[in-house]
Amino acid sequence: MKRILSIGLSALLYLVSLLPWWLLFRIADLLYLLLNYVFGYRKNVIDDNLRNAFPEKTELERLTIRKKYYRYLADLLVESAKLFTISPKEVAKRVYVPNADLIKSYFAKGKSVIGVLGHYGNWEMNALRFSQLFDEKRLIVYKPLSSSFADKMVKKMRSRFGATLVSMKETGRKLIGLRNERTVTVMVSDQTPSKAETQYFARFLNQPTAVFLGVEKLAKITDSIVVFCDIRRLGRGRYRCEFVPLYESPKHTLANEITDGHVAYLERVIREKPEYWLWSHRRWKFGPESLNS
């Protein structure tokens, strides 16, 4: 029965992905109404997150952000469904990358690169575009999903254009094994570690936030240049991704400097257009005090 259900869901997702963009966005308009006015999807989580992140804003300002977030989330859902069958040409048209030559210049110097991004804009579409840009080894670090069906579908989608998916636990071993090759690795920086995994709390959106130290550790071990993948939404289904150099000599940085740096950059991006970050995620599950209890 479980296998039949998985096959049915796969078929449905495939059929949805074949729909034209104009129809997908009409579906997104309906989804927005359902998310905002009917179900109030994770309304309490969103409101708590916004209240803690922006205590200086009024209730009306935070309500406006929540409404805009629901619109973005509806678009994100249909855009992500489209990625299962989207053509390489269509991805290239919808994600503008103004400075891919920056990464190529690092490769020319024999350097590898770690690209950091957050759950902002459509990170999935941008990851597919990233897969098209370079001939060097392209790695996407991911956190395996609890659902085997969802995990399989997401892995299949993310690797469509030649990137290699590597689980977070295997990344260090993989990069060390490729230390004699030029690689570009993409890592989502705002994942939430478990209590057992937490080693550091960064200041993020007005509160101490448990963060993974993987970007910093891997950059120092492999001497990889750290860049931020600055994703900006240009319109429905359209994005701009600029590579912003953060640390070109990671081995010469102080402890936690790289981590604090990429966390701070993501916060600046979010504060400019907060509606495009994943506010319905339970990002702040525990604080520093809970680790001592």
Automatic annotation (TrEMBL):
Top-level taxonomic group: Bacteria
Subcellular location: Cell inner membrane
Matching CDD domains: LPLAT_LABLAT-like
One Gene Ontology MF term: acyltransferase activity
Native source organism of the sequence: Pedobacter ureilyticus
Ranges that cross the membrane: 12-35
PANTHER family reported for this sequence: LIPID A BIOSYNTHESIS LAUROYL ACYLTRANSFERASE, PHOSPHATIDYLINOSITOL MANNOSIDE ACYLTRANSFERASE
InterPro entries reported for this sequence: LipA_acyltrans
Name under which the protein is recorded: Lysophospholipid acyltransferase family protein
Alphabetic keyword roster: Acyltransferase, Cell inner membrane, Cell membrane, Membrane, Transferase, Transmembrane, Transmembrane helix
Chief location category: membrane
